[in-house]
UniProtKB/TrEMBL annotation:
CDD domains: PBP2_LTTR_like_4. Transmembrane segments: none annotated. GO terms for cellular component: cytosol. This is LysR family transcriptional regulator. The keyword Transcription regulation applies. It comes from Teichococcus oryzae. The lineage of its organism: Bacteria, Pseudomonadati, Pseudomonadota, Alphaproteobacteria, Acetobacterales. Belongs to the LysR transcriptional regulatory family. Pfam families: HTH_1, LysR_substrate. Keywords: DNA-binding, Transcription, Transcription regulation.
Length: 297
């Protein structure tokens, strides 16, 4: 006969309180049902574990030996189950994500604040990375999900588009091109351009757009961070090209921000996850907050 968790819990309860009646009440079962569970357990181990006495019930020598091992095991099990329930209810957990720096500085902070308003116990560990690194971290399961541009990865990864933005030219209002509502790519090809370094997905978009128009551009300055490009544009070192969603644009309200046209340069920013894995509850909470932040934008 099989040994069940119910039978072990029934034995532990009778052994702890020395009473079938009280144990049955605490387990919310009838006393005959409790007796059946105890008998099945004794049949499973092949030993009598409890003796009925005028005062209730006492463990046999075998019962005392089982109780010494069983009590800590049941406590550990109860703790593990409670911990899992906390995870499921989003009362505990850590979200690990890899994200483009431009999104980490703009969309992400508001989404984290929104999530913590509902689930203050959840933690977030953010890894800023370029697109290729984001994909690799999701693929290797270093993070729960990533946010980056669309590389059409296929395989074990799936993408959910989050938003679409465009590349802007950021320049002093005194510049001749600032008088235009949008700046044709052809006119930017001969300007001093301030661009992100070549491993950036934004830089690749810009380079590809110029190449398609028949131009190979050499930037006047390169930088790792968009804030650096904005600072250079403020001092007149050239025209910065950054995405419209970048929070760094607010650093220099005195600069003119003009969309690039003919052709425009756009990107789709997506949520990347493994298609063969479900997200942990904490990660699901942040994804919901991201969607809600975008819906309310």
């Amino acid at each position: 006969m099989s040994i069940t968790l119910k039978g072990l819990r029934a034995f532990a309860m009778v052994q702890r309180y020395g009473s079938f009646t009280r144990a049955a009440a605490l387990l919310n079962i009838t006393q005959p049902a409790l007796t059946v569970q105890i008998r099945q357990l004794e049949a499973g181990v092949g030993l009598r574990l409890l003796e009925r006495t005028p005062r209730g019930a006492e463990p046999t020598a075998a019962g005392r030996e089982l109780a010494r091992s069983l009590e800590p095991l049941l406590q550990d099990l109860d703790h593990a189950i409670a911990s899992l329930r906390d995870l499921a209810a989003r009362r505990r957990g850590l979200v690990r994500l890899a994200v483009l720096p431009s999104v980490a500085a703009s969309l992400l902070p508001g989404a984290i604040a929104r999530m913590r308003a509902s689930h203050p116990e959840l933690g977030v560990r953010v890894h800023e990375a370029v697109t290729g690194q984001v994909y690799e971290m999701v693929r290797s399961e270093e993070v729960d999900f990533g946010i980056a541009t669309d590389l059409r990865p296929g395989g074990a990864l799936s993408l959910e588009p989050l938003f679409r933005d465009q590349i802007l030219a950021l320049l002093p209002p005194s510049h001749a091109l600032a008088r235009m509502q949008s700046i044709p790519l052809q006119k930017l090809a001969t300007e001093r351009l301030l661009l992100l370094e070549s491993d950036s997905s934004i830089r690749r978009l810009v380079d590809d757009a110029f190449a398609s128009a028949g131009h190979i551009v050499a930037p006047a300055q390169e930088a790792v961070h968009m804030g650096t490009l904005v600072g250079m544009a403020r001092t007149g070192l050239g025209i910065a090209m950054i995405p419209s969603s970048a929070a760094e644009i607010t650093m220099a309200p005195e600069l003119a921000a003009r969309p690039v046209s003919r052709p425009g340069i756009h990107r789709v920013v997506s949520l990347i996850r493994r298609s063969d894995r479900s997200l942990p509850p904490a990660a699901e909470a942040l994804v919901e907050a991201l969607r809600n932040s975008l819906a309310g934008a």
